[in-house]
Design brief:
single chain, about 475 residues, mainly alpha, 23 helices, about 65% helix, about 0% strand
């Protein structure tokens, strides 16, 4: 039968970080759903290794500890660390430090680093409490004189300065076993988020019931961690709202609230606020929330929103919009390829996506496949822009009229405005290009030439009137 060290594929050690790194490295190979027995064996090996690491070390490198193991201070310190009642209480730690005041200077020098080694090998220790002892004994690199490994001491002192991930006082009412499991979960969560974010989803899938301690900073960290992993936790919504109430001018608080509402699956009740947020705080984060909401609730809006986002980003050095060429962005192409796998996307949506992705090739599905679709007028204008054609007044007027419709969808209004802006930019671009080209001398042949001039004047009036309507809408 394999030992816990063989399962973890490491040598026997008392270094807690090495044990945890080995466990996290093997974790993706033993998913609880596909290999429940392997995961159970790995988890048991991890817990056994942690228990062994907490026991007194008996080897030649720790001879000095063994020699003073019977000292009452060391015994008292181990008793404090193992006490379910006192290990996280500053008052208990202060009483222990008072015992040191009765020791001679020689005894303090003798006990300083053995106490440090015991603390370093403790898994569940309150750093806020331990910092009181560290200050009293002056645990510093320059004073260790080789009695403690430099890298281990540096890592330990960094953790000590950083403090606990949450206030352990908030879980003292829980059984010790639950306290340890809660601390272990959040410590592993924090390490994964910083160093191996790709493993967060498998890690979280192993835990079904998690206690959330009553700690404000932890709540904000959880909002950040879960949101970055695109995971929604209903319990976090109250924390997000209370944070926003405390800091109403902080843009992050608004983002985390909307993100959790999106990832928790909130539907139409969120859309108006989400659209306002996207318009007021344009960012890749707002884009991601808008696209995620569309995928969950209105997938046929998704291709149009992707085009809307890409068009918004196309500006020159002076901030003026550039002529929109759909599909030039690598991110846009990735998003469109991704949505093709969504079975909920209609044939109309697939036709436009294929048109953007495969320019110059006829899409497998015609864009006229569903002219009765509610979004058909929007898709028709989008198609003309994708094909680098000037949208006609006949195609633009139906979507302009929808802006004034009663009970209009706020997301649809955003899309229409962006399509109209791009149509206006296209007209302006074409006019500038025509004016910059050398014009041939007019030839008066008595008929067709005059008719051509009349047609040009007619189209100028049409597009001038259209641009005027668009400017009026945004005025």
């Amino acid at each position: 039968m394999k030992t816990c060290w063989q399962i973890l594929e490491i040598e026997e050690t008392t270094d807690i970080d090495i044990i945890r790194r080995a466990y996290l490295a093997l974790l993706p190979s033993f998913h609880p759903e596909t290999d429940p027995q392997g995961f159970k064996q790995l988890r048991q090996a991890y817990e056994d290794a942690l228990r062994i690491a907490q026991s007194p070390v008996k080897n030649r490198e720790d001879t000095e500890i063994t020699e003073v193991a019977e000292h009452e201070i060391l015994l008292a310190f181990r008793a404090l660390l193992s006490s379910d009642e006192d290990r996280f209480k500053q008052s208990a730690w202060q009483r222990f430090i008072q015992q040191l005041n009765h020791c001679s200077m020689e005894e303090i020098d003798e006990l300083r680093w053995p106490l440090c080694i015991i603390a370093m090998n403790s898994v569940f220790v309150c750093f806020e409490c331990l910092s009181l002892l560290a200050e009293r004994l002056r645990w510093q690199h320059e004073d260790c004189q080789g009695k403690v490994g430099e890298e281990e001491l540096e890592s330990f002192l960094y953790s000590l300065a950083k403090g606990n991930i949450f206030n352990f006082q908030t879980i003292l009412h829980l059984p010790a076993v639950v306290q340890n499991e809660t601390i272990d979960f959040y410590q592993a969560f924090e390490r994964l988020w910083f160093y191996h974010p790709q493993w967060l989803a498998p890690f979280l899938s192993q835990h079904y019931t998690v206690i959330i301690p009553d700690d404000t900073q932890l709540h904000r960290n959880l909002l950040c961690w879960y949101t970055s992993s695109r995971l929604g936790i209903p319990e976090l919504l109250d924390y997000a709202r209370s944070w926003r109430e405390v800091e109403p001018d902080n843009e992050d608080t608004r983002y985390y609230e909307y993100a959790q509402r999106v990832y928790c699956g909130e539907g139409e009740s969120l859309l108006a606020e989400l659209c306002d947020y996207w318009r007021e705080y344009p960012s890749t984060q707002a884009d991601a929330l808008m696209l995620q909401w569309c995928r969950q609730h209105r997938v046929d809006y998704y291709p149009l929103v992707v085009m809307m986002i890409e068009a918004r980003e196309l500006v020159n050095d002076q901030g003026k919009p550039l002529l929109y060429v759909p599909g030039d962005s690598a991110r846009t192409r990735f998003q469109l390829y991704e949505i093709l796998s969504d079975e909920k996307l209609s044939a109309l949506g697939r036709s436009l996506v294929e048109m953007v992705l495969h320019k110059g090739h006829k899409p497998r599905i015609s864009l006229t496949c569903d002219t009765e679709h509610p979004l058909w007028p929007l898709y028709l204008v989008a198609k003309q822009l994708v094909q680098a054609n000037q949208p006609t007044e006949e195609s633009l007027m139906p979507i302009v009229s929808r802006l004034d419709a009663e009970g209009r969808c706020p997301l649809e209004a955003l899309i229409i405005r962006r399509l109209l802006i791009q149509a206006a930019n296209f007209t302006e671009k074409q006019t500038v290009e025509q004016e910059s080209q050398p014009q041939p001398m007019p030839v008066n042949d008595g008929g067709p030439g005059c008719l051509g001039v009349i047609k040009i004047i007619f189209y100028i009036f049409i597009f001038a009137g259209l641009i005027g309507k668009i400017l009026h809408l945004f005025g």
